[in-house]
Amino acid sequence: MRKLVALLLFGSLAAWAATVDGKWVAKVENKKGTQEIAFNLKAEDGRLSGSVAMGKRLRSIPIAEGKIEGDKITFVTESKGRKQQQADKMLWTATVTDNELKGSSQREGGRRGRPFTAVRQP
Question: What is the DSSP letter of 99?
């Protein structure tokens, strides 16, 4: 009986994890106005991969260290601007529902995160 319950639980989590796959878009207000953030996500075996595109040109940044635990996702992005000597590392966390990613991004070493809500795109 325990094996059956464990198998059903694992199967349902694996099936649920696949629901994060796809494109998600958030519109975030900042000092310069509204910024669009596009997430292209793919789940496989408890790992999350893909990219995050943001800024005026929607420059794509690959996801690193992506994890899925239940309905929570975490990942890191690193980008290097033209004037920066060191990469800018962002830590991302979110909770996934059927059509919404709700979370925050925080610069490594930063004091507070910036919230976002992304909606699944068709």
Answer: S
